[in-house]
Design a protein that fits this description.
4 helices
Length: about 160
């Protein structure tokens, strides 16, 4: 049995499931009666990790976002990974919004996570490694307490806990 146990905290999305959710949302928008004859659409840019949504007006755009969120939830993709952009006027009296998908833990957020973990008062060590945070400790129960704490008090974007040893 190892004397030290560890896990990594990351913020990722399953891009295959996200792609499937977008395809399902696009299909629903194509066949729904209230979207017939409109410019409502979703484009997924995997390279830049963002979505471009187009609609005739703000109310319709909100409905497109709701459809997308429903499909993401059904596919197991965290809905809170979406960061909304600002509403822009597009051509032909339509509106556009660019949503970005949150991936990776930025350095400032990683420092906040490490500080939070230290404030809990559990005997574990947390260190920043690129876009993830590694937490190590002697007891598995202490590591599970850290996970439980972060699920309650963590950032607004989704976190995953991987490589548990």
């Amino acid at each position: 049995m190892a004397d030290n146990h560890a896990f990594d905290i990351v913020s990722e999305i399953n891009s295959a499931e996200m792609h499937n959710a977008v395809v399902q949302a696009q299909h629903e928008i194509a066949v729904r009666y209230d979207f017939k004859g409109t410019r409502a659409s979703i484009e997924y840019n995997k390279k830049d990790n963002n979505l471009t949504l187009l609609a005739d007006h703000k109310g319709q755009l909100d409905t497109v976002i709701q459809v997308l969120k429903e499909k993401m939830a059904k596919r197991g993709v965290a809905v809170n990974a979406l960061k909304r952009g600002k509403l822009e006027e597009a051509t032909h009296d339509s509106v556009r919004e660019i949503l970005t998908l949150h991936t990776g833990i930025e350095t400032d957020d990683a420092k906040k996570l490490v500080k939070q973990i230290k404030q809990i008062g559990i005997k574990v060590q947390a260190q920043i490694m690129d876009s993830k945070v590694r937490v190590t400790g002697k007891k598995i129960d202490e590591l599970q307490s850290v996970i439980a704490y972060l699920k309650e008090n963590g950032p607004e974007y989704p976190l995953q806990y991987i490589n548990f040893t």
